[in-house]
Amino acid sequence: MTDNTFGDAKDNMLAAAPTTGNWERETLEKLVFATVREQRATRRWGIFFKLTFLGLAFFALWAFFDFDFSGSDMETLGRHTALIEIDGSIESEGSGSADVVIPSLNKAFADAGSVAVVLRINSPGGSPVQAGNIVDEILRLKQAYPAKPVYVVVDEICASGGYYIAAAADKIFVNKASIVGSVGVLMDGFGFTGTMDKLGVERRLLTAGENKGFLDPFSPQSDKHKAHAQAMLNEIHQQFISVVRTGRGKRLKETPETFSGLFWSGARAVEMGLADGFGTVETTARDVVKAEDIVDYTAHEGLPERVLKKFGASVGAGMVKTLGPSARPVLR
Hints:
Blueprint: H1 3-15, H2 22-64, E1 80-87, H3 98-110, E2 114-123, H4 128-144, E3 150-159, H5 161-166, E4 171-174, E5 179-181, H6 193-199, H7 223-248, E6 263-265, H8 266-272, E7 277-278, H9 281-289, E8 294-296, H10 303-310, H11 313-323
Parallel strand pairs: 1-2, 1-8, 2-3, 3-4, 3-5, 4-7
Antiparallel strand pairs: 5-6
Protein backbone atom coordinates (compact mmCIF):
# COMPACT_ATOMS: atom_id res chain seq x y z
CA MET A 1 0.00 0.00 0.00
CA THR A 2 1.48 3.42 -1.04
CA ASP A 3 1.43 6.72 0.85
CA ASN A 4 -1.25 8.03 -1.60
CA THR A 5 -3.49 5.15 -0.64
CA PHE A 6 -3.14 6.11 3.01
CA GLY A 7 -3.92 9.71 2.06
CA ASP A 8 -7.09 8.61 0.24
CA ALA A 9 -8.09 6.51 3.22
CA LYS A 10 -7.66 9.50 5.48
CA ASP A 11 -9.79 11.75 3.25
CA ASN A 12 -12.50 9.08 3.01
CA MET A 13 -12.61 8.69 6.78
CA LEU A 14 -12.81 12.41 7.26
CA ALA A 15 -15.46 12.76 4.56
CA ALA A 16 -17.53 10.03 6.15
CA ALA A 17 -17.92 12.06 9.32
CA PRO A 18 -18.93 15.60 8.23
CA THR A 19 -21.06 16.28 11.27
CA THR A 20 -18.57 15.29 13.89
CA GLY A 21 -16.94 17.82 16.11
CA ASN A 22 -13.44 19.20 15.77
CA TRP A 23 -12.08 16.96 18.54
CA GLU A 24 -13.41 13.87 16.75
CA ARG A 25 -11.90 15.05 13.47
CA GLU A 26 -8.56 15.66 15.14
CA THR A 27 -8.69 12.20 16.70
CA LEU A 28 -9.32 10.59 13.33
CA GLU A 29 -6.48 12.58 11.76
CA LYS A 30 -4.08 11.49 14.51
CA LEU A 31 -5.15 7.87 14.09
CA VAL A 32 -4.63 7.98 10.32
CA PHE A 33 -1.26 9.72 10.55
CA ALA A 34 -0.09 7.27 13.23
CA THR A 35 -1.05 4.39 10.94
CA VAL A 36 0.87 5.96 8.05
CA ARG A 37 3.97 6.52 10.21
CA GLU A 38 3.84 2.95 11.49
CA GLN A 39 3.65 1.55 7.95
CA ARG A 40 6.54 3.73 6.80
CA ALA A 41 8.67 2.64 9.76
CA THR A 42 7.87 -1.01 9.07
CA ARG A 43 8.96 -0.62 5.45
CA ARG A 44 12.18 1.14 6.44
CA TRP A 45 13.07 -1.54 8.98
CA GLY A 46 12.26 -4.24 6.44
CA ILE A 47 14.65 -2.68 3.92
CA PHE A 48 17.31 -2.28 6.61
CA PHE A 49 17.16 -5.94 7.70
CA LYS A 50 17.21 -7.17 4.09
CA LEU A 51 20.29 -5.10 3.29
CA THR A 52 21.97 -6.23 6.51
CA PHE A 53 21.27 -9.89 5.73
CA LEU A 54 22.63 -9.53 2.20
CA GLY A 55 25.75 -7.82 3.53
CA LEU A 56 26.39 -10.55 6.09
CA ALA A 57 25.81 -13.26 3.49
CA PHE A 58 28.27 -11.63 1.11
CA PHE A 59 30.88 -11.23 3.87
CA ALA A 60 30.46 -14.86 4.93
CA LEU A 61 30.95 -16.06 1.35
CA TRP A 62 33.98 -13.82 0.97
CA ALA A 63 35.56 -15.22 4.14
CA PHE A 64 34.64 -18.84 3.39
CA PHE A 65 36.16 -18.86 -0.08
CA ASP A 66 39.04 -16.59 0.99
CA PHE A 67 38.52 -14.17 -1.87
CA ASP A 68 41.37 -11.72 -2.34
CA PHE A 69 40.33 -8.74 -4.42
CA SER A 70 43.69 -7.06 -4.00
CA GLY A 71 45.31 -9.58 -6.35
CA SER A 72 48.16 -10.21 -3.92
CA ASP A 73 48.24 -13.93 -4.79
CA MET A 74 48.96 -12.98 -8.40
CA GLU A 75 51.89 -10.75 -7.51
CA THR A 76 55.42 -12.15 -7.66
CA LEU A 77 57.24 -11.64 -4.40
CA GLY A 78 60.86 -10.60 -4.51
CA ARG A 79 63.78 -12.58 -3.12
CA HIS A 80 62.85 -13.53 0.43
CA THR A 81 63.02 -16.05 3.27
CA ALA A 82 59.84 -18.10 3.66
CA LEU A 83 58.60 -18.51 7.24
CA ILE A 84 56.21 -21.15 8.59
CA GLU A 85 55.33 -21.28 12.28
CA ILE A 86 54.36 -24.41 14.21
CA ASP A 87 53.10 -23.32 17.60
CA GLY A 88 51.55 -25.75 20.06
CA SER A 89 50.92 -29.47 20.07
CA ILE A 90 51.33 -31.54 16.91
CA GLU A 91 47.76 -32.76 16.62
CA SER A 92 45.23 -33.54 13.91
CA GLU A 93 43.68 -30.11 14.47
CA GLY A 94 45.30 -26.74 15.00
CA SER A 95 48.42 -25.01 13.68
CA GLY A 96 50.53 -28.14 14.18
CA SER A 97 48.41 -30.46 12.05
CA ALA A 98 49.68 -31.88 8.77
CA ASP A 99 46.59 -30.50 7.01
CA VAL A 100 47.67 -26.98 7.99
CA VAL A 101 51.45 -27.23 7.75
CA ILE A 102 51.77 -29.16 4.46
CA PRO A 103 49.85 -26.66 2.27
CA SER A 104 51.99 -23.88 3.78
CA LEU A 105 55.14 -25.83 2.93
CA ASN A 106 54.01 -26.32 -0.65
CA LYS A 107 53.26 -22.62 -1.11
CA ALA A 108 56.59 -21.61 0.43
CA PHE A 109 58.63 -23.96 -1.74
CA ALA A 110 56.67 -23.22 -4.93
CA ASP A 111 57.10 -19.45 -4.72
CA ALA A 112 59.82 -18.40 -7.15
CA GLY A 113 60.99 -15.66 -4.80
CA SER A 114 61.66 -17.85 -1.76
CA VAL A 115 65.29 -18.90 -1.45
CA ALA A 116 64.93 -20.91 1.77
CA VAL A 117 62.23 -22.12 4.15
CA VAL A 118 62.45 -21.50 7.89
CA LEU A 119 60.25 -23.39 10.33
CA ARG A 120 59.88 -21.66 13.67
CA ILE A 121 58.86 -24.41 16.10
CA ASN A 122 57.51 -23.98 19.59
CA SER A 123 55.98 -27.37 20.44
CA PRO A 124 56.12 -29.95 23.24
CA GLY A 125 55.25 -32.74 20.79
CA GLY A 126 52.14 -34.68 19.94
CA SER A 127 50.97 -37.14 17.33
CA PRO A 128 53.63 -39.31 15.63
CA VAL A 129 51.30 -39.63 12.64
CA GLN A 130 51.00 -35.87 12.10
CA ALA A 131 54.72 -35.34 12.69
CA GLY A 132 55.56 -38.19 10.33
CA ASN A 133 53.34 -36.81 7.57
CA ILE A 134 55.00 -33.40 7.86
CA VAL A 135 58.48 -34.93 7.79
CA ASP A 136 57.64 -36.98 4.70
CA GLU A 137 56.44 -33.85 2.91
CA ILE A 138 59.56 -31.89 3.89
CA LEU A 139 61.76 -34.64 2.49
CA ARG A 140 59.73 -34.78 -0.71
CA LEU A 141 59.91 -31.01 -1.21
CA LYS A 142 63.64 -30.96 -0.53
CA GLN A 143 64.08 -33.40 -3.41
CA ALA A 144 61.76 -31.42 -5.65
CA TYR A 145 63.50 -28.11 -4.81
CA PRO A 146 67.13 -29.06 -4.06
CA ALA A 147 68.29 -25.43 -4.21
CA LYS A 148 66.02 -24.40 -1.31
CA PRO A 149 67.35 -25.41 2.12
CA VAL A 150 65.11 -25.92 5.15
CA TYR A 151 66.08 -24.46 8.50
CA VAL A 152 64.43 -24.79 11.90
CA VAL A 153 64.51 -22.08 14.53
CA VAL A 154 63.51 -23.28 17.99
CA ASP A 155 61.56 -20.91 20.18
CA GLU A 156 60.81 -21.95 23.78
CA ILE A 157 60.62 -25.70 23.24
CA CYS A 158 61.15 -28.21 20.47
CA ALA A 159 60.59 -31.58 22.09
CA SER A 160 59.47 -35.02 20.99
CA GLY A 161 57.09 -34.59 18.01
CA GLY A 162 58.39 -31.06 17.50
CA TYR A 163 61.96 -32.36 17.30
CA TYR A 164 60.78 -35.21 15.07
CA ILE A 165 59.89 -32.52 12.50
CA ALA A 166 63.00 -30.45 13.19
CA ALA A 167 65.30 -33.41 12.49
CA ALA A 168 64.31 -33.27 8.81
CA ALA A 169 65.77 -29.78 8.42
CA ASP A 170 69.19 -29.01 6.98
CA LYS A 171 70.13 -27.06 10.10
CA ILE A 172 68.57 -26.38 13.52
CA PHE A 173 69.13 -23.13 15.39
CA VAL A 174 68.18 -22.65 19.05
CA ASN A 175 68.36 -20.24 21.91
CA LYS A 176 70.79 -21.32 24.60
CA ALA A 177 67.84 -21.67 27.02
CA SER A 178 65.48 -23.49 24.63
CA ILE A 179 64.27 -26.97 25.58
CA VAL A 180 65.30 -29.55 22.99
CA GLY A 181 65.09 -33.33 22.66
CA SER A 182 62.80 -35.85 24.35
CA VAL A 183 63.26 -38.49 21.67
CA GLY A 184 60.74 -40.99 22.98
CA VAL A 185 57.17 -42.21 22.82
CA LEU A 186 54.53 -42.61 25.50
CA MET A 187 51.05 -43.97 25.93
CA ASP A 188 49.32 -42.94 29.14
CA GLY A 189 46.03 -43.59 30.84
CA PHE A 190 44.46 -44.52 34.18
CA GLY A 191 43.29 -47.68 35.89
CA PHE A 192 40.29 -47.62 38.22
CA THR A 193 39.92 -51.27 39.15
CA GLY A 194 41.06 -50.84 42.76
CA THR A 195 38.78 -47.87 43.34
CA MET A 196 35.86 -49.75 41.81
CA ASP A 197 36.45 -52.72 44.12
CA LYS A 198 36.38 -50.44 47.16
CA LEU A 199 33.16 -48.81 45.99
CA GLY A 200 31.56 -52.11 45.11
CA VAL A 201 31.25 -51.21 41.42
CA GLU A 202 31.27 -54.09 38.96
CA ARG A 203 32.60 -53.60 35.43
CA ARG A 204 30.42 -55.34 32.82
CA LEU A 205 32.23 -55.33 29.48
CA LEU A 206 31.09 -57.45 26.55
CA THR A 207 33.32 -57.77 23.47
CA ALA A 208 33.42 -59.71 20.23
CA GLY A 209 37.11 -60.41 19.86
CA GLU A 210 39.29 -61.33 22.82
CA ASN A 211 41.42 -58.19 22.57
CA LYS A 212 38.67 -55.67 21.86
CA GLY A 213 38.82 -54.40 25.44
CA PHE A 214 42.51 -53.53 24.98
CA LEU A 215 43.66 -51.01 27.61
CA ASP A 216 40.16 -50.52 28.99
CA PRO A 217 40.75 -48.36 32.12
CA PHE A 218 37.99 -50.15 34.06
CA SER A 219 39.41 -53.64 33.54
CA PRO A 220 42.61 -55.21 34.89
CA GLN A 221 45.61 -54.82 32.59
CA SER A 222 46.79 -58.16 31.26
CA ASP A 223 50.45 -58.99 30.63
CA LYS A 224 49.60 -59.80 27.02
CA HIS A 225 48.08 -56.38 26.36
CA LYS A 226 50.90 -54.60 28.15
CA ALA A 227 53.50 -56.45 26.06
CA HIS A 228 51.63 -55.65 22.85
CA ALA A 229 51.43 -51.95 23.72
CA GLN A 230 55.12 -51.85 24.64
CA ALA A 231 56.10 -53.51 21.35
CA MET A 232 54.08 -50.92 19.44
CA LEU A 233 55.74 -48.06 21.34
CA ASN A 234 59.18 -49.53 20.69
CA GLU A 235 58.40 -49.74 16.98
CA ILE A 236 57.34 -46.08 16.80
CA HIS A 237 60.38 -45.13 18.89
CA GLN A 238 62.67 -46.80 16.35
CA GLN A 239 60.95 -44.84 13.57
CA PHE A 240 61.66 -41.66 15.52
CA ILE A 241 65.30 -42.65 16.08
CA SER A 242 65.74 -43.41 12.39
CA VAL A 243 64.48 -39.95 11.41
CA VAL A 244 66.88 -38.29 13.87
CA ARG A 245 69.87 -40.36 12.80
CA THR A 246 69.17 -39.79 9.12
CA GLY A 247 68.56 -36.08 9.54
CA ARG A 248 71.47 -35.29 11.83
CA GLY A 249 73.97 -37.70 10.32
CA LYS A 250 77.55 -37.41 11.55
CA ARG A 251 76.74 -34.24 13.46
CA LEU A 252 74.92 -36.32 16.08
CA LYS A 253 77.13 -37.21 19.05
CA GLU A 254 75.09 -40.20 20.11
CA THR A 255 75.19 -41.47 23.69
CA PRO A 256 73.02 -43.96 25.61
CA GLU A 257 70.95 -40.98 26.80
CA THR A 258 70.32 -39.45 23.37
CA PHE A 259 67.19 -41.49 22.63
CA SER A 260 66.11 -42.07 26.24
CA GLY A 261 63.39 -39.42 26.27
CA LEU A 262 65.45 -36.84 28.16
CA PHE A 263 65.54 -33.24 27.02
CA TRP A 264 68.26 -30.63 27.30
CA SER A 265 68.90 -26.90 27.09
CA GLY A 266 69.65 -25.38 23.72
CA ALA A 267 73.28 -24.91 24.65
CA ARG A 268 73.64 -28.58 25.58
CA ALA A 269 71.74 -29.61 22.44
CA VAL A 270 74.36 -27.90 20.30
CA GLU A 271 77.13 -29.76 22.12
CA MET A 272 75.30 -33.08 21.57
CA GLY A 273 74.76 -32.44 17.88
CA LEU A 274 70.98 -32.18 18.26
CA ALA A 275 71.24 -28.60 17.02
CA ASP A 276 73.74 -26.66 14.90
CA GLY A 277 74.00 -23.28 16.57
CA PHE A 278 72.23 -20.28 18.03
CA GLY A 279 69.95 -17.96 16.14
CA THR A 280 66.55 -16.45 15.55
CA VAL A 281 64.39 -16.20 12.45
CA GLU A 282 65.83 -12.77 11.75
CA THR A 283 69.48 -13.78 12.13
CA THR A 284 68.91 -16.91 10.07
CA ALA A 285 67.34 -14.90 7.26
CA ARG A 286 70.08 -12.25 7.38
CA ASP A 287 73.24 -14.24 8.09
CA VAL A 288 72.48 -17.74 6.78
CA VAL A 289 69.94 -17.35 3.98
CA LYS A 290 71.20 -13.88 3.00
CA ALA A 291 67.63 -12.75 2.34
CA GLU A 292 66.49 -10.37 5.05
CA ASP A 293 62.94 -9.98 3.75
CA ILE A 294 60.74 -12.52 5.55
CA VAL A 295 57.38 -13.63 4.18
CA ASP A 296 55.07 -15.56 6.50
CA TYR A 297 53.37 -18.51 4.79
CA THR A 298 51.74 -19.80 7.96
CA ALA A 299 48.10 -20.73 7.46
CA HIS A 300 46.06 -18.87 10.05
CA GLU A 301 42.56 -19.61 11.28
CA GLY A 302 39.90 -17.86 9.20
CA LEU A 303 36.51 -16.42 9.98
CA PRO A 304 34.51 -19.64 9.29
CA GLU A 305 36.58 -21.54 11.85
CA ARG A 306 36.19 -18.81 14.44
CA VAL A 307 32.43 -18.65 13.87
CA LEU A 308 32.07 -22.43 14.15
CA LYS A 309 34.04 -22.47 17.36
CA LYS A 310 32.00 -19.59 18.76
CA PHE A 311 28.79 -21.49 18.21
CA GLY A 312 30.05 -24.68 19.77
CA ALA A 313 31.50 -26.78 16.98
CA SER A 314 34.79 -27.12 18.80
CA VAL A 315 32.96 -27.97 22.01
CA GLY A 316 31.15 -30.75 20.22
CA ALA A 317 34.39 -32.10 18.79
CA GLY A 318 35.96 -31.98 22.22
CA MET A 319 33.02 -33.89 23.65
CA VAL A 320 33.49 -36.62 21.05
CA LYS A 321 37.15 -36.87 21.92
CA THR A 322 36.35 -37.04 25.60
CA LEU A 323 33.88 -39.87 25.14
CA GLY A 324 36.11 -41.81 22.75
CA PRO A 325 39.24 -43.90 23.44
CA SER A 326 42.12 -41.80 24.79
CA ALA A 327 45.02 -44.28 24.86
CA ARG A 328 47.22 -43.65 21.84
CA PRO A 329 50.96 -43.23 21.20
CA VAL A 330 52.20 -39.69 21.74
CA LEU A 331 55.56 -38.11 20.98
CA ARG A 332 55.80 -36.02 24.11
